[in-house]
Amino acid sequence: MASPLVFDRPRVGILAVVPRDGRFVLVERAKAPAQGMWGFPGGSQELGETVMEAAIRELAEETGIRAGDPQILTVLDSIHRDEAGVPTIHYTLVAVQLRWLEGEGEAADDAKSAGWFGPDDLSAIPALPAVRPLMLQALAALSA
Asked: Taking a C-beta distance cutoff of 8 angstroms, is the pair 30, 111 a contact?
């Protein structure tokens, strides 16, 4: 039996990509979807909030880290389907790269844990598939 539709259209989600000395702050998700997986801090954009404001807010809420100079890194889709292949959840994710200003990163809000990881550290944690490519893209953007 197909599961009921959870979303009737895509929603905007924000990912805060914060590099610092070749490592990035990641959080372990405390809630579904992707509970127990590690990814960039983020969440839903609020009504009246710009993408850049949402990235700064979500980062602060989930980690206590303060960052600035937001730049859009890329846009991704996160689509979850039921067993029949019907989309039930669809986020359009805007990955925003920010410059770290202060804070070490402590889990809060929707985050169970927080830490700093580089691309070579990801084999030690259950990271979401987009994490490594986004890290490499952000590092390349810093080098350009």
From this structure: yes
Query: What stretch of H or E contains 139?
Result: helix 131-143
- The pLDDT of residue 25 is 98
> At 90, is the secondary structure helix, strand, or coil?
strand
Burial 97-136 (b: 16+ CB within 10 A, else e): bbebeebebebeebbeebbbbebebbeeeebbebbbebbe
Name the band, by pLDDT with cuts 50, 70 and 90, for residue 110: confident
Cα-Cα-Cα-Cα torsion 39, 25, 142, 69, nearest 10 degrees, comes to 100
DSSP string, the chain: -PPPPS-SS-EEEEEEE-EETTEEEEEEE-SSSSTT-EE-SEEEPPTT--HHHHHHHHHHHHH--EEEEEEEEEEEEEEEE-TTS-EEEEEEEEEEEEEEEE------TTEEEEEEE-GGGGGGS-B-TTHHHHHHHHHHHHH-
**pTM for the complete prediction?**
0.91
Residue 129 tokens read as 């598939």
